[in-house]
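Entry for the shared binder. Reason: the reviewer on the internal report wants the predicted structure included alongside the sequence.
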Amino acid sequence: MFRKLIYILIALVLLSALGAAGYYFGNQYWIHRYDDLIERQAKVYRLNEDFVWSIIHEESYFSGWKIGADAEVGLMQVTPTVAREWAKKTGLKEFEKRTAENVQAFLKEPERNIQVGCWYLESLSERYRDFPAEKAMTLAAYNAGASRVEEWTKDVDASRLSEKEFISRIKISSTKAYVSSILKRYRQINKGRIR
């Protein structure tokens, strides 16, 4: 009886270890399966790939099929309006046609979603280039809109605000949490603590 109990305990420990290892390696695959696409598109749009990766982690946890509350689609939760604007700016009729016909299907393609998301992120970041709070302002604009960033900085010189000062001015609690979470993850990656 005692020996049988020992065998059961050993089997349970082994199953637990195998389950934990399976979860770990499965999760590593899940969160890194788009790394090549992220790296390629981040370079095209002069963005830090770890920054883009951190945004995707927050936006959709790498779920390409996710549809947001405001009809945002895919990995980077790109809106149909942004996708159509991007397609028009490319000048490629095929992209314009596809975004006009079925923008959701277009944005569910990981490569296109990351491409459009990076294009939009880069266009937002240009507004705040070389500001001390550039990344925080870009994230806030990506989440809540550039007009909100303008609203939160209208009484000061935004080009002089520190990141901490800017974040304290964010009036939408979910946007403040979004910005803080992504910046924390991004900094942890840069320190080699995660990813």
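Summary line for the report: Residues 2-32 form the longest helix (31 residues).
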